[in-house]
Amino acid sequence: MNFSINNQTLKINNQRSMNKVVQFLTLLIICVVFTSCGDDDEVPLLEVASETFSNLHAPQTGGQGQPVAGAFTKFDFSSGEVTTSDTAWDIAFRGTSIIVNGGNSLGTTDEPNRTGDAGVYIATGTMASILEVDVNAFQQDSDTGYAIATGSGNGWYLYNPQAFLITPMAGKILVFKTRNGNFAKVEILSYYKDAPSDPDVTTDESRYFTFNYVYQPNTGITTF
Amino acid sequence: MILNNKIFCFYFSLFIGMVSFSQEAKEKVKDTLTPEKLEEVVVTATRNIRQLSSLPLPVQLISQQDILRSNVVRLNDILNEQTGLITVPDFGGGEGVQMQGLDSQYVLILVDGVPLVGRSAGTLDLSRLAVGNIKQIEIVKGASSSLYGSEALGGVINIITETPTNGFKGAVNYRLSSFNTNDIGTNISYKKNKLGMNAFINRYSSEGYDLIDNDDLNTVEPFSNYTLNTKLTYEFSERTKLFLSGRYYRQDQENIASSNLIGESAINEWNSHLRLSHVHTPKWTSHFEFYATRYKAEEYLNEDDGTRFSDAYFNQLLVRPEVRSSYRFGRKSNLSGGLGFNHESLDRTSFTETPIFNAPYVFAQYDGNLTEKLNVILGARFDAHNEYASQFSPKGAIRYKLNDKIAFKSSLGYGFKAPDFRQLYFDFTNATVGYTVLGYSAVPSAISQLQEQGQIANLIVPIAEFSSELKPENSVSINLGADFKLTPKWRFGLNLFRNNINDLIDTRIIANKTNGQNVFSYFNIDEVFTQGLEFNTTWKPLNKFKISAGYQWLMAKDKNAIQAFEDGDVFARESPSEPSFQLRKEDYFGLLNRSKHMANLKVFYHIPKWNLDTNVRITYRSKYGLFDSNGNSYLDVYDDFVSGYSIVDVAINKTIYKNYQLGFGLDNIFNFTDVQNISNIAGRLIYGKLNIQF
Lengths: 224, 694
Description:
The complex is a heterodimer of chains A (224) and B (694). Chain A contains 2 helices and 13 strands, in the order H-H-E-E-E-E-E-E-E-E-E-E-E-E-E. Chain A has helices at 2-15, 20-42, and strands at residues 49-57, 61-63, 66-69, 73-76, 81-83, 91-94, 97-100, 119-124, 157-160, 165-168, 172-177, 183-192, 206-216. In chain A, helix 1 runs antiparallel to helix 2. Chain B is globular. The interface between A and B is medium-sized, with 30 and 21 residues.
């Protein structure tokens, strides 16, 4: 990966047909990179895998004018599992709300305290097209609102008032920074149990998240 | 806007080019005089009587004979069969007409040259109009604000009713059709010497119909309505004539929201129209006109125990005095102009105030035949207004007759539609869902009130943005066409059109509410265009046999949407639970409720031996989208569409003893319905009709 970046640099420099100083600098960079590549060989990069998590159950009580309550269902990207740990979680779900383990609590009932440095932003694109992390775009939860805004069309979903259905917006990729500073991207596919292709609010149980995600296990790497 | 100016300049130079070209050809030998049959005339295109075939504008005419032969009873039925027109139901149940891909709110509806009001949600419901006393319907396509001002952005439909002719004449007709639909009416006319009188009475009622069985509501609830129209003409002298017309319409309908919310709705409408015409000299004529109309709609819902659940009312008044004059000169040329004043008010539920619009206007028009072959119309109108910026609407049209068989025509005009009362003064909160819709002018006070009540979570659009005026929606419309008279029995007309609409008003979220819902208001946001091609042909090989066909190809798109697709900002999923992908430019379908293809075919056949008139009429509409079903806010090819469909109507009319006519027919013979998407198609209708003339 590092090598390819350098090829690019080389090409650009050649194209610009800059003077010898640049050529010297390029050589210098190549030398530096080859040395670092040598370092990488000793600690190989962990594989980046595309995963699907099905039926993450995110119950809540209240709502529709009543105060919302109930435990959030927490998720840890590094293990790819749901967890009940108070600290070792990255994101958590309750109803349509998604919170991150970073920033401050909004203060709703049963809301966990933030112990990490997680953050999120919503990118426009597909899982295939979002390949780099914009490290400056991350937002954290705060006492005035969640980083992933609630409400139809504001965050990750649309609400269809005729069919009473929650559907994830197409082309919205949630890019997360985990509590430890790694990165992950998530596309939510369904809010209904077993991700039916034609959800029906009268028969399909809601508050079951199915999502695709890619976790970058290598710390400091901002690409997927 | 810059683009539009360019188009304007381009067409005006083309226009001038054509004028100079034709002047060179001026010296050609004059046509020999050929006897012509009594020609069809229209008044809507120029506000003067003009031969239909010589107009430089795209005009369609529906004759009384066509209406009678089709056995239709309401205006929407007959308009639906015309090329490029389709009536579309709105959520309130009204049926408005779409013309050149523009909605009902951009089509001005006139009766004898004066407008109808009562557009509660923009749509003017055409089923309000009975066809029993219609002499002809004139349809002018393309922006016509240079003569008619606001609303004439897409075009004008003018319903010309019958005026008294010499002697005593009358007709009684009755039609019974499916769903116990009864139409009964009479039209009586008397004229002797100076005095003429005409009375039209119609009652139309139906038990309604239900397309979806397992709910408490009917698709159309039972209703009955009455139309009464009386006219008086008096000739003070050869030169001075009076026209007086009064129309009254009342409809009562059941209003059912659910099994335990039941009420009634009523519409009361009256129009009074007075016109004094005076011929000053043989060449100079003036009309002094006074028109007033009120449209009042009321409805209520009661709970099971009889307590009132909701009340709603809509009460609009329009008063319009107008003076116009026309002067004839030279080679059938004509200079006309006029001035008038619109006074409008609306008292309505959910309004912050009872607003009043005052709008004086002045217009002028030159209609000249520069040579035998060249006709030019140049006109303009200026509308001032107390609530929004004044509007200047020019229009130019030109017709060049190449020879007896071919004539070219072209027109270019500006059209506008003033923001309506609702877009300015609405203050409505949905009682069950909780969202709020605010008129543009109502925003500052209503928002601060909501803020005081703690209902606003956050403001998305700062209030200061509402200090400037909401601009009228406006368009530049271009029509380029040709008429071909290939043989005396075969006619063919072609028209290309484009409407560039700017400052289209649409709703946008301006604030989030604490209940999770939003506050909407109206903005000038959209730029859309509609363009297409229309052709009409009539072939009449024998006196007893006539075929007519028409076709419209339409493209109606939002420019911002095209941009979003080009930028790659639009995504979709194959099904709700599959990963999303990016859409390409060609995946954008266009505006909602627009079909790419619309066509009609009508065959009329007369059998003299049996005194029998028969006809088959087919209309076709290709697929269209009603809403964005995949939630990316654009209509794309992955959305759900309403499938294309055809409707076939058959009618047979037999005349006995000259004055009696019996009719029988089947509308929608193949019983087409789409219960989910099309509420105004009830399925097959069988009817019988009796018409007696005396």
